[in-house]
Amino acid sequence: MTTAVVVGAGPNGLAAAIHLARNGIDVHVLEARDTAGGGARSGELMVPGVIHDHCSAFHPMGVGSPLWQQIGLDRYGLRWKWPEVDCAHPLDDGSAGVLYQSIDDTAAGLGRDGPRWRHVLGDLVAGFDDLAQDLLRPVLHIPRHPIRLATFGPRAVLPATVLARWFRTEQARALFAGTAAHIYTRLDRPLTSALGLVMLASGHRYGWPVAEGGSGSIVDALVAALRERGGTITTGVRITDRHDIPAADLVMLDLSPAAVCELYGDLLPPRIRRSFQRYRQGSSAFKVDFAIEGDIPWTNPACARAGTVHLGGSVAEIADSERQRAQGRMPQRPFVLVGQQYLADRSRSAGPINPIWAYAHVPFGYTGDATAAVIDQIERFAPGFRERITATVSTSTAELAAYNPNFIGGDIIGGANDRLQVLFRPRIARDPYFTGVPGVYLCSQSTPPGGGIHGLCGYHAAESALRRLRAH
């Protein structure tokens, strides 16, 4: 029987393991920490019974993942929960851009920009599942839906700051720019509209849900699915040398390109080794978790119903803060994401105490403490927030890297999304998963289609391995 070892039990490592196992391969997963999970863990941090997501929180790309749908994670206990409002982006005048799953409701709330919102996103929403088949894979491939891809391209290639000008109101502009800011790079660069368009279209198609009980519930379901197919997992095993990896026909690495170089550098073909060594990190976060009494006292009432709240002010302010961050300077007012998962999933709270998840975009490897900046941004749009805090836990970029070695310098999405790297990660190739070492594949979020709890990096890496097996 063909055997495989997967190093790393994050969602992508588990996805690769499941896909190999359901194709008749004997799979064993090794995980350095005591539990599986990678960027999808959750648990108590401060107050008994109050559940916080340790990294990933909202899953617009997860609920619609074709792989998760194929596996049927609901059969293993996963339940999605949707907030009343997917996302809100408040402004200093008390107004807000408000994103609903319904594109009609969103457009209605944007007033004179409603028709323009439909014009930019309507066809992407209607054909999202077809479009995703081409977008959520390596760029170099034969398109399955070339016409949809061709109509998406002219919008996607624009800088987010340029596409935002299509809208006339500051609310619509800010809502788009705040979503585009998830790309974690300067918004005045080409292709920065792409992620914003995909996240918004996915949200209108599937919503921005949370996993009931915490993001760790996704991993629990994946582990159960893998074990049902005969796969096994061993935790507490740290791989520091390739000789620590048991002999197998296939080795799948849910690791960073830098870690692959450390393990296999002398075996990698020179061209691939140079690509991995040049691979750039840069999408760093400073995370702050709060336990609060009651709810955040937002000035805008839509924010009190929103699962996700983007805090960055106007398009100009977001663009300026992201430019400073990319240049290595800490903005005075960083872009901050706030998660109110408990609004959709009340099981995360304990009595009047609710969990609040937040992180700021900070320069790569930032060594300072951004806690005050995060609190100031929330207080700016919710005066009185400080008085409701009962406990706080901050996680620096260094602590994020210690928590997950793939989060180099606090980079939580597996690599900088700028220049050619936004299209080609970790290298320019039709098959970026193959390392050039026979039987060894990279399956982490540093491969296409990139960050997100969708499992598709692992799936495509497993498909690459299966194709080579069939060819021999």
From TrEMBL:
Protein name, UniProt field: Dehydrogenase
Superkingdom per UniProt: Bacteria
Gene3D superfamilies: FAD/NAD(P)-binding domain
